[in-house]
């Protein structure tokens, strides 16, 4: 092993855990069918319950697509059980998520969350269940992530996982006890955590765009699960498990998603690697984790071309929000942007 182990692992995984899978969907028929097809090919699919949370149509023009998703869901086979959680009206992705999670966590201690634009590797369920089982008793582990950026593994890598304080929700395993400790209403209030310059420097080194995204979420009163979960793990010194070889691909970077632009240049993988693996080495090696954290940060920095001035601007908004509140800060920002436009000066858009 290289580096200090943060958790005493099983040498190779043996688990009987069968976490239920939650799929969030609305009107993307093609994406949804591709996801459930890949999920049905997973080892362990026939022993897995699947919950499909279908949000109501947000517009009459997508009702036909929603109806087709419902019909396809009712015809699904190959899983131990299929539960359809249909919404009579459009409640939005965040409420759809919360309602479904609350229902599943009434009977289960873990769940695996997927969005309808995900595609999973054949050993996705094996990896997720083995890792959730191994780290289920470690309160410092917040989640198990299924996606990893297309970054090459280090030359010496005897483990199939690494840990990071960042959260990516493109296929994520959640623990009931830890999920309910997060501040799911973070968009309504701000923590003073980032007033500490050491904390701000740490998050900037991990993911340069994160802090700006977090402030944007608060200013716009939107809700990004990745940002909320990441802020939680940073504040509480927790970590998240990632696969060395990604187990999830995202096909929603085609403009069809709510938060994803029509730009798939940076997050595409050519194929799933080592998808035939049936067991995994689940030891956390600090050097392997450091390798991926460092290379992922550089990858994201290049993808988003994040500028230091953007972080400074976001920090000023953050401090103003803490001092005078969000509404006043929004008014001050809008007035300042209007004045700059009149002078022909372009401003940041948070």
Helix- and strand-based class? alpha/beta
CATH superfamily of the largest domain: Spore Coat Polysaccharide Biosynthesis Protein SpsA, Chain A
CATH architecture field of the largest domain: Alpha-Beta Complex
Sheet with most strands: strand arrangement: 3-2-1-4-8-6-9-7
Helix content: 25-40%
Following the backbone from N to C, one meets helices and strands in this order, namely: EHEHEHEEHEEEHHHHEEHHH
Number of domains: 2
Q: For the report, how would you describe the main beta sheet? A: 8 strands, mixed
User: How many helices does DSSP assign?
Assistant: 11
Give the strand tally. 10
CATH topology of the largest domain: Spore Coat Polysaccharide Biosynthesis Protein SpsA, Chain A
Strand content: 5-15%
Euclidean distance between termini CA atoms:
44 Å
State the name of the first-level CATH class of the largest domain.
Alpha Beta
Please give the radius of gyration in angstroms.
21 Å
Which word captures the global form?
Answer: globular
Low-confidence stretches: 1-13
- Residue-averaged pLDDT, rounded? 88
3D structure, described in words:
There is one protein chain. The chain has 350 residues and is α/β, with parallel strands linked by helices. It has two domains: 21-184 and 223-304, Spore Coat Polysaccharide Biosynthesis Protein SpsA, Chain A; 196-222 and 307-350, no CATH class. The protein has eleven helices and ten strands. The strands form two sheets. An eight-stranded mixed beta sheet has the order 3-2-1-4-8-6-9-7, sandwiched between helices. A two-stranded antiparallel ribbon has the order 5-10. Helix 2 links the parallel strand 2 and strand 3. The model is unreliable at 1-13 (pLDDT under 50).
């Amino acid at each position: 092993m290289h580096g200090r182990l943060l958790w005493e692992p099983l040498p190779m995984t043996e688990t009987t855990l069968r976490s239920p899978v939650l799929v969030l969907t609305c009107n993307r028929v093609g994406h949804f069918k591709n996801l459930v097809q890949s999920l049905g090919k997973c080892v362990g699919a026939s022993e897995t319950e699947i919950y499909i949370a279908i949000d109501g149509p947000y517009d009459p023009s997508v009702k036909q697509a929603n109806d087709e998703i419902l019909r396809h869901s009712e015809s699904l086979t190959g899983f131990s059980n299929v539960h359809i959680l249909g919404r009579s009206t459009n409640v939005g992705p965040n409420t759809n998520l919360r309602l479904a999670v609350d229902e599943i966590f009434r009977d289960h201690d873990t769940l695996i969350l997927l969005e309808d634009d995900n595609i999973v590797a054949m050993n996705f369920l094996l990896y997720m269940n083995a890792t959730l089982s191994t780290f289920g008793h470690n309160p410092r582990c917040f989640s198990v992530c299924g996606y990893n950026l297309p970054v090459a593994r280090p030359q010496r890598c005897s483990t199939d996982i690494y840990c990071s304080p960042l959260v990516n929700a493109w296929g994520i395993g959640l623990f009931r006890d830890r999920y309910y400790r997060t501040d799911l209403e973070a968009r309504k209030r701000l923590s003073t955590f980032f007033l500490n310059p050491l904390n701000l420097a740490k998050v900037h080194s991990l993911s340069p765009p994160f802090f700006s995204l977090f402030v944007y979420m608060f200013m716009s009163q939107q809700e990004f699960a990745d940002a909320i979960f990441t802020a939680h793990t940073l504040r509480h010194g927790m970590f998240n498990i990632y696969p060395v070889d990604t187990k999830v691909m995202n096909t929603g970077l085609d403009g069809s998603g709510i938060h994803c632009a029509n730009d798939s240049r940076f997050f595409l993988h050519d194929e799933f690697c080592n998808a035939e693996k049936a067991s995994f080495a689940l030891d956390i090696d600090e050097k392997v984790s450091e390798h991926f954290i460092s290379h992922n940060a550089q990858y994201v920095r290049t993808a988003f071309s994040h500028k230091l001035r953007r972080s400074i601007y976001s920090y000023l908004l953050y401090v103003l929000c803490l001092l005078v509140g969000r509404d006043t800060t929004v008014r001050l920002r809008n007035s300042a942007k209007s004045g700059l436009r009149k002078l022909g000066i372009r401003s940041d858009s948070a």
